[in-house]
Design a protein that fits this description.
Elements lengths: L2 H23 L6 H23 L5 H24 L5 H23 L8 H18 L5 H22 L8
Helix pairs in contact: 1-2, 1-3, 2-3, 2-5, 3-4, 3-5, 4-6, 5-6
Length: 172
Amino acid sequence: MNIANKLTILRMIMVPFFFLAVYYEKASGFFPISAFIFAIASITDFLDGYLARKHNMVSNFGKFMDPLADKILVAAALISLVEMNLTPAWMVVIIISREYSVSIIRAIAALSGEVIAASKGGKAKTTTQILAVLMLLLNIPFGNIMMWLAVVITFVSGADYLIKNKKLISLD
């Protein structure tokens, strides 16, 4: 197993530790350990993709598990934010719905032998979501504004995926 895939697995392993940190920090309303774990896990997302492309370590495992690990991490963080009343549930529903919709479109494309590459909008979506989660966990001013921005970019990038790949969605 290559280093990129090990980083993907590490990201998934970090999710329960993130939950534990949130649980223990919840009483204080300040989540530095949770934010640190989330930040490190998020860095592994960028690092594993970079290493896989740079060193030609792209694998079928990585193509499937990397996006899954990303979605598990982000969903875990967002659900935690709702539980702590740091963000409204409707925002999280929009974000998670987009993630699963795009995943389904990618799976349909894969069945046809197509690969849908990540878009600039998708990268912006990921960046704003990570920043929003970190800002809210650390009570940084404008964290709510960043969450609004993340929701808007998430929605727009999701609509872009749907429009560009509408041929894959057949109602026949």
